[in-house]
Design goal:
The chain contains 13 helices and 14 strands. It has helices spanning 23-30, 35-54, 110-130, 179-193, 201-223, 281-284, 290-303, 311-319, 330-345, 350-361, 428-439, 442-449, 480-491; strands at residues 18-19, 83-87, 97-101, 142-146, 155-157, 162-164, 233-234, 249-250, 259-260, 264-265, 403-410, 417-422, 458-464, 469-474. Strands 1-5-6-4-2-3 form a 6-stranded mixed beta sheet, covered by helices on one side. A 4-stranded antiparallel beta sheet has the order 12-11-13-14. A two-stranded antiparallel ribbon has the order 7-8.
Length: 493
């Protein structure tokens, strides 16, 4: 599905679009009794879905515009970040009008300067702490668009640049305010160029956790905070004062970040005893990331000093090392960090003991298996290929009384939205579309051909017992007409 408002298409490549606001938060806001707030949230969800769908087949930029290479950008400061900031001016067209380039004077627009500074702080962490030249290690330019859409409740990395909305002013403030959010999204680019963690189950939760880890490390380094001084909150600057919460996530105390009538309650578990075994949200990637998040905080605080120099260096060694696989689970990752701590500081060192203890506390490793060889029970690994059934032949047309259960999960926060409805209760056009769709084998063919998952993409499941349909499909793989039918059906609830 391609947006009709955008003239910018992501660069070719496997990087999926990642948004900072969990879709389950936007879904909660979309159901709000406050009309303006609900409208803004629905608009953010709608456009997020369009952009995700536009990435289902990597293609070259149709306008001929390409992401600039390092040699395309000059700076008076020599080696360093290569930043360019654009202004969408309230449209949903990226990149927009260039308003600040590397080394240029500050703008009178706070969002422009916040984006510029946030990209610089992110580049600084990777460069000075880990000797990494930008996200790809090869000097990748850092681009950002501000003032994207109107009251747009999100920020995302589209595979080539950052995009920032201004928020609705009711729940979310402008998204350039939070440097850890900027760092989180850009860290997805680093993960793609290193471990390439699959966005499913435990490897997907590790993907999300890694972004939270390095996002907060960007903030801590910029503020000069030690592990003991840090608040370990993700997105604290985004929430309007009216929200009953501290942030989007609390890495030190998962599950306690917010408890708000509009947002719901923070669903993250703090240990494996409360691990969420679910098919939603690509196996709960945004929820179960709270477990490795907490392990990192425990290790960082036990090691002491600056977290980017202590635990952060150990985590980066694993992320960029040869031992990690794309389908890495919690136990394997934990074992790799224990080994990396031993390599850096010596076997039996205080640092290694701190890392092992952290993973034991959250229940990923047992006290008798600090090397990760006999830790917590692993969930089934996902290799990225759908386990959907083989395509079924066309069947009978369902009756108007046939019940359809449509369920949408996934997104940055994993909010669940669903509707059970009799086909005859839908508007006439939609009822006929559902009958035609369920009588054909289209959904089965799409599900069977799915070979990759997309970070922060929505996942739809369709169940209709009358015709024996039980299918799960990621949103980027849906044709525009089917995607629109799904969204209309959910919106009418």
């Amino acid at each position: 599905m391609t947006s009709t408002t955008s003239t910018h298409s992501p660069a070719a490549g496997p990087t999926p679009r990642c948004t900072i606001v969990p879709p389950y938060i936007l879904e909660a806001l979309a159901a709000s009794d406050e009309p303006a707030l609900a409208t803004h949230a629905r608009e953010a969800l709608r456009h997020d879905q369009e952009l995700r769908a536009a990435r289902r087949t990597p293609t070259a930029r149709p306008t001929g515009r390409r992401a600039p290479r390092r040699g395309d950008v000059t700076t008076a400061h020599g080696e360093g970040p290569h930043r360019t900031i654009y202004d969408a001016k309230g449209t949903q067209t990226a990149p927009g009008t260039q308003v600040r380039a590397e080394g240029g004077a500050p703008s009178s627009d706070a969002a422009v300067n916040e984006a510029y500074d946030g990209l610089g702080a992110t580049w600084d962490l990777w460069s000075t702490a880990y000797s990494r030249d930008s996200l790809d290690g090869k000097g990748m330019p850092l681009l950002a668009t501000v003032h994207y859409g109107r009251n747009y409740d999100n920020a995302f990395w589209d595979g080539s640049q950052m995009v920032f909305g201004d928020g609705d002013g009711v729940v979310f403030e402008r998204f350039t305010r939070s440097v850890d959010v900027i760092g989180h999204e850009l860290a997805h680019g680093v993960t793609e160029h290193t471990a390439g963690l699959l966005y499913q189950g435990q490897s997907g939760a590790l993907n999300e956790s890694v972004s939270d880890v390095f996002g907060v490390l960007v903030k801590q380094k910029a503020l000069g905070q030690s592990a003991a001084e840090a608040d370990w909150l993700v997105g604290a600057d985004l929430l309007n004062p009216s929200v009953e919460g501290r942030a989007l996530r609390d890495m030190r105390n998962p599950g306690t970040a917010y408890d708000d009538p509009r947002l719901g309650t923070d669903p993250q578990p703090a240990d494996m005893a409360h691990y969420v075994d679910t098919q939603d949200d690509n196996g709960g990637v945004h929820i179960n990331s709270g477990i490795p998040n907490r392990a990192f905080v425990l290790a960082a605080e036990a090691i002491g000093g600056n977290a980017w120099e202590g635990a952060g260096a150990i985590w980066y060694a694993v992320l960029s090392g040869d031992g990690i696989n794309a389908d890495c689970d919690f136990e394997t990752f934990a074992g790799l960090t224990v080994a990396a701590a031993g390599s850096a500081h010596g076997d039996g060192s205080a640092e290694q003991k701190a890392v092992r203890s952290a993973w034991e506390t959250v229940g990923v490793l047992t006290a008798a298996a600090g090397d990760g060889s006999h830790g917590a029970k692993r969930t089934k690994k996902s290799g990225g290929r759908s386990t959907a059934p083989a395509p079924a032949p066309a069947g009978p047309t369902p009756s108007s009384e046939a019940q359809v259960l449509l369920r949408r999960t996934g997104g940055f926060a994993g909010q669940v939205r669903e509707r059970r409805v009799a086909i005859g209760e839908l508007p006439e056009r939609d009822a006929k579309d559902w009958q035609h769709l369920l009588a054909a084998s289209t959904l089965q063919r799409i599900a069977a051909s799915t070979e990759r998952t997309h970070p922060d993409a929505f996942v739809y499941s369709v169940v209709c017992d009358e015709v024996g349909c039980d299918i799960t499909i990621q949103e980027p793989h849906l044709p525009e007409a089917i995607h629109s039918l799904f969204e209309r059906t959910l919106a009418d609830d």
